Amino acid sequence: MLSQQLVNGLVLGSTYALFALGFTLIFGVLRVINLTYGFYFSIGAFVALTAARSFGANIWVALPLGAIAAGLVAVVADWILLTRLRRAKAGELSSLMVTLGAVLALYSLMAVFIGTDIQRFPFGFVDNSAIEFSGIRISLVQMLIIGTTLVLVALLFVLLQRTKLGLMIRALAENEDAARLMGINVGLTVAAVSFLSGMLGGAAGVLIGLNFNAIQPFMGEHMMLRGFAVIIIGGLGDIRGALIAGVLLGVLEVLTAGYISSNAKEAVAFTILVLTLWFRPVGLFGRAQAKRA
């Protein structure tokens, strides 16, 4: 049924949008391609899983713990890997290569200590009941995913538009040197951006782990491909574009799996990405920048 597939697509797209939102924040503000972002997705899910298994935490405790842990890991990773490159004003390729090596090492370490087998949340961790209306079935897990995404997105917009920290972040996104001259603590602002993006990635990891009830170390690697597609389709650094493109990609993947083939859905992101680069290289909401001699 089309309406049911659209609901399922909205749920999946919400997780894509939340994941891509943090990735967009990193690129839009810090101007780096940080491939360790996929690791934050995985570590957030595993922290929530550990809290649930070892300490009996419910979802309202495990989800914030996973998000906060991922945010803290993001701050440490950025400080260790990218601070020196930022001071040297190294190009985007440098950050790409450094974080590529780092994320491969981090995934390997996680696999050594945790294993590569799929792990699942304890039975009853989240109520599996559902409600139905007009032939559409929506589980409480799906409502939790959509609701959490809406709340986090709203809080992020309020923070960026209504707070002093948000003003500092927007100033840094415009021009780092000018922000420093205006008296903004650039180091603190960078740490705040890293923490926020890591939290969003970690929260997305917990939510998609709930959606499929399947968690393993390399789950972030799979999501990074979606993340790249979403931020390019939406427009590099554009938060609104990342949200819309994430939901759109999720809906199209579910419709493709439901009406064509589950194997064909893997090609959806690549196909839309290529079409975007062919016909609108700046993305749906990106704006071309004038080149200066």
Automatic annotation (TrEMBL):
Assigned keywords, A-Z: Amino-acid transport, Cell inner membrane, Cell membrane, Membrane, Transmembrane, Transmembrane helix, Transport
Superkingdom: Bacteria
CDD domains assigned to the protein according to its UniProt record, in alphabetical order: TM_PBP1_LivH_like
GO biological process assignments: D-alanine transmembrane transport; L-alanine transport; L-isoleucine import across plasma membrane
Transmembrane segments: 6-30, 37-55, 61-81, 93-116, 136-160, 181-208, 267-286
GO cellular component terms, A-Z: plasma membrane
Chief location: membrane
Any GO MF annotation of the entry: L-leucine transmembrane transporter activity
UniProt similarity note: Belongs to the binding-protein-dependent transport system permease family. LivHM subfamily.
Protein name: ABC transporter permease
Organism of this sequence: Skermanella stibiiresistens SB22
